[in-house]
Amino acid sequence: MDNHDLMDAMRNHIKPQIDLTIRANQKCAYCKSTKDIKVNYKYGFDFVVDDCLSLAEDDDIPTSFDYDIDNLAIFKKEDEEFSDLWYLMHQADDTVEILCPECISDINTIHYEITQMYLASSVDAYYFLIVIGVVPHNFDELNNLLLVVVVVVDILLAF
Ligand SMILES: [Zn+2]
Fold this sequence. Notes:
The chain has helices at about 5-15, 15-25, 45-55, 80-90, 100-115, 125-130, 140-159; strands at about 40, 65, 75, 95-100. It is mainly alpha-helical and about 160 residues long. It is built from seven helices and four strands, in the order ααβαββαβααα. The N and C termini lie far apart (about 40 Å). A hairpin with a 5-residue loop joins β2 and β3 (about 75). It folds into two domains: about 1-100, no CATH class; about 100-159. Zinc ion binds next to α5.
């Protein structure tokens, strides 16, 4: 299976939905800035994609594609069942958020810091934050959360 084409087709397919969402929201979900807002995937695009792929029947996951004028893969009409599922799942996914570039950059820095901080630990602190459903948006939130994480990680490591 050409995974690259599948990813392109998945990205292409939800473009209109993202445009609609941005137009409907018009401001950063976190700081309310209206400048250059865009979609951010809290846990990465792959996280949403994997969710959909794990739910779809293997036979329904497209393996061949049509191509648009930019030569990017798009879903074939016959793969409507999968593309509809993907569209709905992406729409319902609450890890997709509208943010401004500044907040996105803060979040990326925070993810990096967490990864560096816990590189030596056997517990993936970022995964832990996903499990408890909390991802910090700024450094104050991060510091508060890390206090909690440090305690919990210590407890987990004690077992
Ligand atoms: Zn913002």
